[in-house]
Amino acid sequence: MRIIRARDYDHMSRQAANIISAQVILKPDSVLGLATGSSPIGVYKQLIEWYKKGDLDFSAVRTVNLDEYVGFGESDAQSYIRFMREQFFDHINIDMRCTNIPNGLNPNAEQECSRYDSVIHALGGIDLQLLGLGPNGHIGFNEPADAFTKGTHRVELSDATIQANKRFFESADAVPRSAYTMGICDIMQAKRTVMVVSGSAKAKIVRDAFFGPVTPRVPASILQLHSDFTLVADEAALEYVK
Description:
Layout: E1 2-6, H1 9-26, E2 31-34, H2 41-52, E3 62-65, E4 67-69, H3 80-87, E5 99-100, H4 109-122, E6 128-131, E7 153-156, H5 159-165, E8 178-181, H6 184-188, E9 192-197, H7 203-211, E10 229-234
Parallel strand pairs: 1-10, 2-3, 2-6, 3-5, 6-9, 9-10
Antiparallel strand pairs: 4-8, 7-8
């Protein structure tokens, strides 16, 4: 595990964007695993800036997103496909046919999860996976559980996740209760993983996930076993890490 200590959110975002940009420059047809939420927004903003300057070309890049709310599609303001278009895809020269995200509108969970696993397999796996860290240690929507879940699956969101995500909705009651999420196995099989974490509210879970035991009760702790994992975090998030 490699730790990059950043001064603040903006510095964290640039450091992570450096890693992703190098991946795209060295392998223009990279398969990027992408994340949503507030943590990676600064990363996408920096990548867009470099693209507009002519430093990056995303025309051959393929992407797979971690997750999507069940029952949500592009017409829903809080869907993750809408998030990705607004925060990243619509501002770069990526071929939208080469972007992939679970179909939240497919009511058949078994069918949709099997389809998404097949997509990842057909792409040859993920070259670099970008991650955030949930307040309870979840990655993607892999919630604390008794065992690590291998493939894409439908998950019921924990109360901690619902409370964390309610800031994007009118109220906690409006937050979806379930999602399709990439599994731990797909994440762990990515050739490289990069996690961005910011703020003192995440300091304790950073300590528990990366300096405590590997346990499915803290899903992100499995990344301690990844062969190429980089944690990019600001000083506040690394409060307990000396």
